[in-house]
Amino acid sequence: MKIENLLRENIKTIKAYSSARDEYKNASADMVFIDANENPFKTNVNRYPDPQQTKVKQRLAEIKGVSTTQILLGNGSDEVLDLIFRAFCEPNYDNVITLPPTYGMYKVLADLNAVDIISVELDNDFEPKVDEILAVQNNNSKLLFLCSPNNPTANSFNSKKVEQLIREFNGIVVIDEAYIDFSSQESWLGRLNEFPNLIVTQTLSKAYGLAGIRLGICYASGFIISVLNKIKPPYNVNQLTQDKALERLNEIKEVEDQIASILKERDLLISELNSISIIKTIYPSDANFVLAKVDEADLRYKQLIDKGIVVRNRTTQPLCKNCLRFTVGTPNENKTLIKILNEL
Ligand SMILES: *Cc1c(COP(=O)(O)O)cnc(C)c1O
C-alpha cells in the first residue's frame, strides 16, 4: 500500500505556512526578536509558542518509546482527528468507516468535511464485525475508526480482529486510544513501525487529568506526521498548554497512582451497581467509565438530574437501548451515586 496515493489530491502538493518562529529555530535567549510583530514587553506569553512543541514531544517520545518525528500535537484529539480527515478525504467523494455505537465526533467531523460515513455496527459483544467491514470498503474508503477501549461500550477490541483490520483494510486505520491508560491491553503504539497505514491517537484529557488544556496526540509514521504538520494551524497548541503538559508529563508517578485509584474505585462501583434492582446489565469495562442497562433510561436519567447527578444517557445509540454511562468519580461521588440509585 502506498500511503501517498491515499492523500487528498490538493494535499499532495500543498506548501506549509512558514511562521516567523519556524524560520529561526536555534534562537538563544539574548537575541533580539523583532520578526513577529509581538509586543516586546513581558507577560510570560507575549511571544508566539513553539509551533513544533519540541519539549512536549521530546518528553512524550521518551515516555512512549517513539521518535519525535512520529508525533503530532493538536488542540485536543478533536483537532487531530479533523486534520486526518482533511489530509485523506476528498469532500463529497471519499468515505470513512465507523463502528457504532462509538464516539460521536467521527460523525460530526465527517459531516463537517462533507465526507460520507459507512457504519458497520459492532456485534452483540461490542466487537468489530471484521468480515462485514472488509466487505463494505470500496476504493473511496480512506479511514477506518477503531475506538479501543470504545466509548460508550467501555470494552477494548479483540487484538486479533484489530490486527486483521489493519492488515486488510485498504486505507488508514485510526485507533483512538483516549482510554488506553486505563486498559489492561497494550497500546498499538508498540507496533507503529510495522504498519504504515496505522494512526494511533491519544489525549491528555482523560487519565492525565488535563481536559481543560486541550492536548491531543497523534502517533503515526514520519511520512503521515509530516503531511499533518504541513496542514495544521501553525500555533495550534498554545504556550500555557505546552507548559502545563510538560509539567504533568514530569509527574508520571502521580498520574499512575491516580489511574490505579480510579480503577480500584471502578471495580468497587461495579460490584455495588450489581446489587441495585433498577440495574439490569453491567458491561465489562476496560476504561474509567461503566456502561449499564437500566429498566428505563430516560426516566432514571431525569431522576438522577433532579438529585443533582449528571450521567450520560446513551439510550438512542445502537445496541445501547436503556443504557446509561457512568464516569468513575471521586470515592465520595461514587458513594452518592450508589446511595441515590438505591433510593430510586
Ligand atoms: C474523550 C475522548 C477523546 C478526547 O478528546 P479530546 O479532544 O482530546 O479531549 C477522544 N476520543 C474518545 C473516544 C473520547 O471518548
- Looking at the overall shape, the CATH architecture of the largest domain is 3-Layer(aba) Sandwich
List the ligand species: pyridoxal-5'-phosphate
Q: Which fold does the CATH topology of the largest domain refer to?
A: Aspartate Aminotransferase, domain 2
The portion of residues assigned to helices is: 25-40%
End-to-end distance, in Å? Answer: 56 Å
What is the fold's blueprint, element by element?
Elements: H1 3-6, H2 20-23, H3 54-64, E1 71-74, H4 76-88, E2 95-98, H5 105-112, E3 116-119, H6 130-136, E4 141-147, H7 159-168, E5 172-176, E6 198-203, E7 216-219, H8 222-231, H9 239-249, H10 252-273, E8 279-282, E9 289-294, H11 297-306, E10 312-313, E11 323-327, H12 331-343
Parallel strand pairs: 2-3, 2-4, 4-5, 5-6
Antiparallel strand pairs: 1-7, 6-7, 8-9, 9-11, 10-11
Helix pairs in contact: 3-9, 4-5, 10-12
Pyridoxal-5'-phosphate binds at residues 76-78, 103, 147, 151, 176, 178, 203, 205-206, 211, 216.
Task: Explain briefly what this protein structure is.
Its cofactor is pyridoxal 5'-phosphate. Pathway: Amino-acid biosynthesis; L-histidine biosynthesis; L-histidine from 5-phospho-alpha-D-ribose 1-diphosphate: step 7/9; Lipid metabolism. The chain is of the alpha/beta class.
